[in-house]
Amino acid sequence: MSAPATLFDKIWDQHVIADLGDGLALLHVDRHLLHDLNAMKCLQELRAQGHRVRNPELTAATPDHGISTLPGRNDETNPAATPLLRGLRAETAAAGIRLYDVNADGQGIVHVMAPELGLTQPGCLVVCGDSHTCTHGGLGALGFGLGRSEVVHVLATQALYQKKPRQLRVRFDGALGRGVTPKDLILHLIGAIGAAAGTGHAVEFAGSTIAALPVEGRLTICNLSVELGAKIGMIAPDDSTFEYLAQRPLAPKDAEWDMALAYWRSLPTDDAATFDREVNIDTTAVAPQVTWGTSPQDVLPVDGRIPDPASASDPDRRKAMAAALDYMGLKPSQPIAGTPIDWVFIGSCTNGRLSDLRAAAAVARGRKVAPGVRAWVVPGSQRVKHAAQAEGLDRVFLDAGFEWREPGCSMCLAANAETIPRGQRSVSTTNRNFEGRQGPGARTHLASPAMAAAAAVRGCITDVRELPV
Amino acid sequence: MQKFTVHAGIAAPLPRANVNTDVLIRIERLVYIPRGQLGPYCFEAWRYRADGSEDPDFVLNRPAYRAATILLAGTNFGCGSSREAAVWSLAEMGYRCMIAPSFGDIFFNNCFQNGMLPIVLPAATVAELTKEAECNADDAAAGKTFTVDLEQQVIVAPSGARVAFKVDAAKRRALLEGLEEIQMTLAREAEIAGFQADDRRRRPWIYRY
């Protein structure tokens, strides 16, 4: 009998091509995702170095970062990114890499489209030149982001050197309070243990609350692992995972499904396995969350007050808090609720899935976006968009005065010229409230889709529990 | 790849936690500005005022630190996005070495791909070195020179204090010799092919789609 192992250990071990000692291994990559911001340059660089794509059939591409999300968009709608889009097409075609092109079925944010197509499966090692590749851990895959050099390395070799990280397990136990979503759980965790707590770790999210979450909520939880400092976040696959996958076009079929299922069932962490660190969260004490500063750890319950830098004992922390409040245009000790806003952004690889849009629509239904507020809904993928339209969610948003747009990353990172203007304040369902993330001088408050919709209709940061749905 | 063996240079103090890669280089710049021209955009939001002029109060703009090549940074430096251009822009601004209590995991790996040395030391040690780097920032000649020796794995501070550090053996060797990782891996093609042949039997569905 083999030694007790974690979910992470089992998948890691399965992928070791060569053990180089000292915790370093050459790992096999099962799925490599390219996007418009990196595909052209990486494939050109690969060729310039005299290499070819070793396994184009294990690689897939879609445009998401740079493309416009304007309804009726074409290749020139965001002219700055047109060369990247055309280069993506030319280079993937030349290399024999499948492309889910703009406005075609399957297109979407890489971390939304790959799970929904069944490209990502439990036990897979998934990489992409994007830090939110940790999202795929929600299906029990081992996913992490790469820099440009590592992307080129994977294209050439279908393998990657990695140092085995330490392991952290976070257990969430308890029921969810009213208005509390997976986004609130993970923001609460980051606030509780800090944005650097996961550095150098692979994180497994476990406990009864996680086991009860649908797959889409699990993807949201794992998506924010990197905001905890961990480039890997994972959740053990279970019947919910298998049910989610069974309908997907690229999931295994027939006898191979049975074979895969037996393998997937062997993956969850053994009872006797140990972690380098464990954290336990009682979810009954978690309220809907909203950030106040410029790091995801700068978060508080929506019924809380903005912290006072004077209360911090560490002088560097005090300075950082004061700088964050200054950037955000907020005053210490005031209630965060009631802060007037200019923008709402609903979408991204964090919260751009169907269940997210349903939660936001439930709040928006029969209400109106407050005067002076612009509110965007950007579905995470073509499939999300069409599923939402099939159940009339687009009408709910449009009737309420939201804009209903085309799938892409959009204002989450503002790579596509869609930005929050300087000094304006946004409630966003995204993953980073960094300075300038949504545009130079933009002020971002991270929150759940329901909280974002509540802010849109009230015109200020609002406790969603005050709005009956 | 550019080698890193022994480097002597001025160190600049930036003891702020969670400095992220969006602050190091805005993603929008990467859509249309090529590698090699990113140096002026590093720390853009902090280096320049809204009107585009330089902010003289930003520490890296101060005369003593303008020629710095070593950065004494805070916890979780380079957290956030995977953009390797965060490292390129720092390198193009002149930096060769960063010293911090911890780094963003992806940023940390990206450094080694670019001949840049990230050194992890206990927070108290980084604080001591940061104190040594502080000087009359208005005096262009006041910057303090540190020596970072990767062969010996030691930092020599201006005071003469020697601080030992440790880098993974394989990463250290790659930096010292300027090795190209892809070539090393292609030499293992038989192992990769062997792995895939076995794996196709174990997990055929992975290769089916």
Largest sheet of chain A: 5 strands, parallel
Radius of gyration of chain B: 20 Å
Query: What oligomeric state do the depicted chains represent?
Result: heterodimer
Strand content of chain B: 15-25%
The CATH topology of the largest domain in chain B is Aconitase, domain 4
Q: What is the count of structural domains of chain B?
A: 2
What strand order characterises the main sheet of chain B? 4-3-2-1-5-6-7
Helix percentage range of chain B: 25-40%
Largest sheet of chain B: 7 strands, mixed
Span of the ends, CA to CA of chain A: 53 Å
Write down the domain tally of chain A: 2
Word description of this protein:
The complex is a heterodimer of chains A (469) and B (209). In chain A, strands 5-4-3-6-7 form a 5-stranded parallel beta sheet. A 5-stranded parallel beta sheet of chain A has the order 17-16-15-18-19, with helices on one face. Chain A has 469 residues and is of the alpha/beta class. Chain A contains 16 helices and 19 strands. In chain A, helix 2 packs across helix 3. Chain B is α/β, with parallel strands linked by helices. Chain B folds into 2 domains: 172 residues, Aconitase, domain 4 (Alpha-Beta Barrel), CATH 3.20.19; 31 residues, no CATH class. Chain B has 9 helices and 7 strands; from the N terminus they run βαααβαβαβαβββααα. Chain B has a 7-stranded mixed beta sheet. In chain B, a hairpin with a 5-residue loop joins strand 6 and strand 7. The longest helix of chain B has 14 residues. The model of chain B has no long low-confidence stretch (mean pLDDT 96). The interface between A and B is large, with 80 and 58 residues.
Spell out the blueprint of helices and strands.
The complex is a heterodimer of chains A (469) and B (209).
Chain A: H1 7-14, E1 16-21, E2 24-28, E3 31-35, H2 39-48, E4 59-62, H3 82-95, E5 98-99, H4 110-117, E6 125-128, E7 142-145, H5 148-157, E8 159-163, E9 166-173, H6 182-193, E10 201-206, H7 208-211, H8 215-223, E11 232-234, H9 239-246, H10 254-265, E12 277-282, E13 289-291, E14 299-301, H11 315-328, E15 343-346, H12 348-351, H13 354-364, E16 374-377, H14 382-390, H15 393-400, E17 403-404, E18 425-428, E19 443-446, H16 449-458
Parallel strand pairs in A: 3-4, 3-6, 4-5, 6-7, 9-10, 9-12, 10-11, 15-16, 15-18, 16-17, 18-19
Antiparallel strand pairs in A: 1-2, 2-8, 13-14
Chain B: E1 6-14, H1 21-24, H2 27-32, H3 44-47, E2 70-73, H4 85-93, E3 97-100, H5 105-112, E4 117-120, H6 123-133, E5 145-149, E6 154-156, E7 162-164, H7 169-177, H8 181-186, H9 189-202
Parallel strand pairs in B: 1-2, 2-3, 3-4
Antiparallel strand pairs in B: 1-5, 5-6, 6-7
